């Protein structure tokens, strides 16, 4: 069976084991059922902007054409750097969008992907954001009324904590399982200025996430459709936004937003 469509990031559902779905065209493929099976993904040499749909030679910011990259509210600077958000000052590419996305409750969190990292997300994006990063344990550190404050708390904590995911360690399942997230949270709060400590949350619940992985690779090799237009092999896992193959090759689906692909599924 063959299915064609433009890639979007995998949709996820939090259950005892994360459920993954891939939407291609009008079809929705439940990826967990494909574990231990041979699949093939072929890039058909077209990219369509995930915002406006126009064909583009180059994809920007995981799926946008250049005009949308420079004008769309989804690609403002504060998406990657929340501390740059100006929505609270009434400044944004689209204030209606900013009202919902920036001027709403945000969470500063600690996550274990390999080591401890600090991050920011909208409350409405929990746990999706954590799943997309491949975190296996998370805890809320602070809750703020907008993106700007959350971003500045993150900046303050970057002096003491990493804010990047080591994707190789994450895909090798190198877990920092001796780290106590509650203790890390308490230390992080102590580092904050009093003005920021008022946003600290007493919620010490730790969420543990389990991914559908049969076997983690001993070595990982990242592949992309620009250099490898045909990706095929036995699917042995899904973590974050990565497909993991038996060969140790890994494919970041989100990175290829808008790429037109054909997915060949096993007969049974």
Description:
20% of the residues lie in helices and 29% in strands. With 268 residues, it is of the alpha+beta class. It has two domains: 2-64 and 213-264, no CATH class; 76-208, no CATH class. The strands form three sheets. A seven-stranded mixed β-sheet has the order 1-14-5-11-12-13-10, with no helix packed on it. Strand 11 (230-239) and strand 12 (242-245) form a beta hairpin. The model has no long low-confidence stretch (mean pLDDT 96).
Question: Layout of helices and strands, plus pairs?
Answer:
Layout lengths: L1 E5 L4 E3 L5 E6 L2 E4 L7 E10 L18 H6 L5 H4 L14 H7 L4 E7 L3 E7 L5 H5 L4 E8 L2 H11 L9 H6 L8 H11 L2 H4 L9 E2 L12 E3 L6 E10 L2 E4 L3 E4 L6 E6 L4
Parallel strand pairs: 10-13
Antiparallel strand pairs: 1-14, 2-3, 3-4, 5-11, 5-14, 6-7, 6-8, 8-9, 11-12, 12-13
Q: Give the helices and strands as they follow along the chain.
A: EEEEEHHHEEHEHHHHEEEEEE
Helix content: 10-25%
Mean pLDDT equals 96
Q: In order across it, which strands form the biggest sheet?
A: 1-14-5-11-12-13-10
Determine Rg (CA atoms, Å): 19 Å
Given the helix and strand composition, which structural class is it? alpha+beta
DSSP E strands, number: 14
Tally of helical segments: 8
Unreliable spans are none
How much strand content do the residues show? 25-35%
Q: What separation lies between the terminal Cα atoms? A: 10 Å
């Amino acid at each position: 069976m063959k299915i064609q469509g433009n890639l979007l990031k995998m949709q996820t559902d939090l259950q005892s084991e994360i459920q993954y779905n891939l939407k291609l065209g009008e079809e929705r493929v439940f990826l967990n059922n494909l574990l231990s099976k041979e699949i093939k993904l072929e890039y058909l040499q077209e990219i369509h902007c995930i915002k406006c749909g126009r064909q583009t030679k180059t994809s920007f910011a995981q799926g946008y054409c250049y005009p949308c990259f420079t004008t769309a509210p989804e690609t403002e600077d504060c998406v990657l750097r929340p501390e740059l958000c100006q929505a609270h000052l009434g400044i944004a590419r689209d204030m209606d969008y900013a009202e919902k996305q920036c001027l709403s409750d945000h969470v500063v969190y600690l996550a274990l992907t390999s080591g401890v990292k600090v991050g920011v997300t909208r409350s409405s994006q929990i746990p999706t954001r954590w799943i997309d990063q491949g975190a296996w344990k998370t805890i809320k550190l602070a809750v703020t009324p907008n993106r700007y404050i959350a971003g500045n708390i993150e900046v303050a904590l970057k002096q003491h904590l990493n804010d990047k995911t080591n994707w190789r360690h994450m895909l090798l399942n190198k877990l920092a399982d001796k780290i106590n997230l509650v203790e890390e949270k308490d230390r992080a709060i102590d580092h904050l200025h009093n003005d920021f400590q008022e946003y600290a949350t007493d919620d010490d619940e730790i969420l543990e996430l389990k991914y559908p992985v049969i076997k983690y690779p001993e070595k990982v090799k990242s592949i992309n459709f620009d250099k490898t237009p045909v990706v095929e092999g036995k699917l042995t896992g899904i973590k974050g936004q990565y497909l993991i193959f038996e060969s140790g090759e890994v494919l970041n689906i989100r990175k290829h937003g808008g790429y037109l692909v054909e997915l060949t599924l096993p007969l049974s």
